[in-house]
Design brief:
516 residues, disordered N terminus, 2 domains, 0% strand, symporter activity, mainly alpha, transmembrane, disordered C terminus, globular
Length: 516
Amino acid sequence: MRGGPAPPAFHFCTDNRAPDVVRKFTEGRMLAYASGNFGKALVFSGADLTILFLLTDLLGLSAMAAGSLMLFALCGDLVFDLVAARLVIRLRHAGKGYRWMVAAAAIPCGLAFALLYAMPALGMREIWALALALLVFRGAYAVIDVPHNALMAQITSDSRARGRVSGYRLMFSTAAALALATILTPLVQQAGSEQAFDRLAITGMIAGMVFIVTMILCALTSNDGAGRPIADTPCEDGIAIPLGDPMVMAMALLGLLTGFFVPAFARTLLYIGSYVVARPELVPGLLLALTFGQFAGVLLWTALTGRFSKSALLAMGGGAGAIGLILFALCLPWPAALIGCAALIGFGLASVYMLPWGLLADAVDVVAWRHGRRFETGMFAGYLVVVKASGAASAAAIGWVLDGLGYVPGQAQAPAVQAGIIALGLGLPLIGCLSAILLMRRFDLGHARHARLIAGLARRRARRDAQSGAEPVSGLKRGLAKSSGDGSTGAGGLALSAQARQSISRSMVAPAVARS
């Protein structure tokens, strides 16, 4: 490349590989990154799905005590993700990136998860011991979750590619959900009825080991920052994000919907199957149907990310999920029909679960344009605080409501309790789906608009480097890839002419990205 190396803010591929080879390499890198979601979903979703049932029906806590314990975990989540973000930023200053953090925290997190499921076998039923084990697990998980999610903004800067990465992430998460539906959930049910605590402990150990291996391999095989046209530096990052920014507030509201409301269906399936339908053996089948529906949803929504914006697809998925929830409520007298309803719910919710992460990566770019600084780690950490804290609040609320209605574990429930379970398991996610549809109508960040935003950020960075004495990137050098590309700028990338750059600058309308 003539005139010396490009400024450090830009990364260009200089090898001689053909464009299709570069695309395959980039796609493989995105898959390697997304594979970490298998391990994360295996332990965190496993705990989220079964921990309340484990506390009430295996360890003998009242629903009120179990709900209070989950609220205690909520308070921990409010702190852990922010502390993890601060630690990530400090280590990035020391030259240790996101991938180093993921690999370093894998072992303590996996061991903490194994301890949670070994506690019944160890006879540890004191509430202080349960609270300590839960806090250790969630704290160790935060140290992995923050850098792994923030890494998504560095894997690719292309809006369409981010949609595909979101789909790959959910694909691996759904594969983990399949393991949870076929192995962990039946074991938790069996342990409750047969006191099979040893098998539960062994399962927790195996799941913890799988998590450790998965996260270390993810860190080794993914790559942070290769091919990104807009790169930040650690000194630009921070956790004091602009809370008044409309995009930040919209993402916080979306996190509340996807953390508190939408997952309530899966959280209450054990109660619905055991006490409303009175068919406990139906629960694994419902979870399987939910999982297979998610698989189908991942395939469709991911395939459509190149044609439709992520916000439009999320609204479509919310609509499909709402229809499935309504049909599930209507089909409660016919348990056989619930399998199909659960599959439709999973199909719709796949969009609601997968696409917010791609929207969040785009939101980092929007905030960078508006405020002149990339709050990458801070925005991902803040979103995680909202999602996980609201998730813990949801579990706590379910426990409190059931206790207030007179829920007694292992017995036939009164009509009021059954009605409460239905309202919690179907009403809350229905509100979440409908609210997500309304919220997505306020987003206006399509693929073309985001491509212009990225180009504008690149030009701003070039001007800043030129003013500081660094060589700006010329229009004759390789520029941003097509907005329909795979998110990597490499051999075969398009050069931006002076006229094209001026056109991009004139059409820049990033401040109107979110009208929320």
